[in-house]
Write a structure and sequence with these properties.
single chain; mainly alpha; 0% strand
Length: 153
């Protein structure tokens, strides 16, 4: 009887930990997804010759993303998945542009993502301000890498 009670308590703790982790990773995943959408939209601007708009989009996308990455206490595996989500959504917008499949639904998703990113920037404003110097090099390298990829063939 005692062993059953202990087993039940352990299971309850385990499942409650999973649901908390899931809720935490949901926010990370959503910020990553929208950061990718915003970055992809900026890439379209880049293709159209507007590098300054790309720089602005990339800056806010990475700032919002890094504000969650560095303050969320996530495990490496969660961050790897989030990076994949970010890259996949960047590609999604670029592919839509390149295949003339840029739809009203995608436009609405882009607008929605700018709203989510804006909210993240406001919520994490103090952390962003305090850590901007720490993140600047990482953001610059990431943006330079994306530009290099966009310029390639």
């Amino acid at each position: 009887m005692v062993n059953k009670s202990i087993s039940i308590v352990i299971l309850l703790v385990f499942f409650s930990t999973i649901s908390v982790a899931s809720a935490n990773t949901d926010k990370l995943d959503n910020i990553a997804a929208c950061s990718g959408i915003v970055l992809g939209n900026g890439a379209v601007d880049f293709f159209l010759g507007d590098e300054a708009s790309f720089d602005s989009a990339a800056n806010i996308a990475y700032t919002a993303y890094l504000s969650e990455v560095f303050t969320g206490g996530y495990e490496q595996s969660d961050l790897e998945i989030a990076d994949t989500i970010l890259g996949g959504n960047t590609d999604k917008v670029i592919v839509a542009y390149n295949t003339d499949a840029f739809s009203n639904e995608l436009y609405e998703e882009i607008v929605s993502c700018y709203r989510l990113i804006s909210t993240q920037l406001i919520e994490r404003g103090e952390s962003i301000y305090q850590n901007n110097d720490k993140w600047a090099d990482l953001k610059e390298k990431s943006i330079a890498t994306i530009k290099r990829m966009l310029k390639a063939g």
